[in-house]
Design goal:
By secondary structure, this protein is α+β, with helices and mostly antiparallel strands. Helices cover about 25% and strands about 45% of the residues. The chain has 2 helices and 8 strands. The chain has helices at about 90-110, 115-130; strands at about 5-10, 15-20, 25-30, 30-35, 45-55, 60-75, 75-80, 85. Strands 1, 2, 3, 4, 5, 6, 7 and 8 form an 8-stranded mixed β-sheet that branches. The model has no long low-confidence stretch (mean pLDDT about 95). It binds adenosine-5'-triphosphate (ATP). Adenosine-5'-triphosphate binds near residues 91, 94 and 98.
Length: about 140
């Protein structure tokens, strides 16, 4: 087990965000966080807005992600994410501005505010701030 690992590929419509062999990965699945170790059973799951963690040699890399799909098969995890950023790629001022915009929209709730859209934008901003250690 010690020398066994899994390949994780995280891809968005824009780029390959992450492609490495890791010890394990924790993914924000649609029904809650899901840990994937080597020899995991094959699964396909939807992804939620959340923090994705990859752990290699005790070192943890965090990414903010916002939905998509994950497939686990044969010690390979393929994640097709709508968006994904490593914590060190996150533009904190941009996420703070997005949080503020969404909060203002939700507070005003004038007829032209799409509440569901503002709530999703707020959740994405909060996860980016959390992943970058700026809660
Ligand atoms: P904004 O209103 O700031 O654009 P958003 O939540 O609407 O935020 P998304 O639609 O989720 O943005 O993402 C659009 C693109 O911008 C994606 O490529 C995503 O990775 C990137 N992105 C969004 N916010 C940030 C951020 N704070 N730091 C780095 N990249 C970001």
């Amino acid at each position: 087990m010690a020398d066994k690992n899994i390949t994780v590929e995280i891809v968005t419509p824009e780029r390959v965000v992450f492609s490495e062999q890791v010890d394990f990965v924790v993914v924000p699945g649609i029904e809650g966080y899901l840990g994937v170790l080597p020899m995991h059973a094959p699964i396909v799951s939807g992804l939620n807005i959340g923090i994705l963690k990859v752990i290699t040699g005790g070192k943890e890399t965090k990414l903010a992600t916002s939905g998509g799909f994950m497939e686990v098969n044969n010690d390979k995890v393929v994640i097709l994410a709508e968006t994904a950023e490593r914590s060190d790629e996150i533009d904190v001022s941009r996420a703070k501005a997005a949080r503020e915009r969404a909060e203002q929209r939700l507070a005003s709730r004038t007829h032209d505010v799409d509440v569901a859209r503002a709530e999703m934008a707020l959740r994405r901003a909060l996860i980016r701030l959390k992943a970058s250690g700026n809660e």
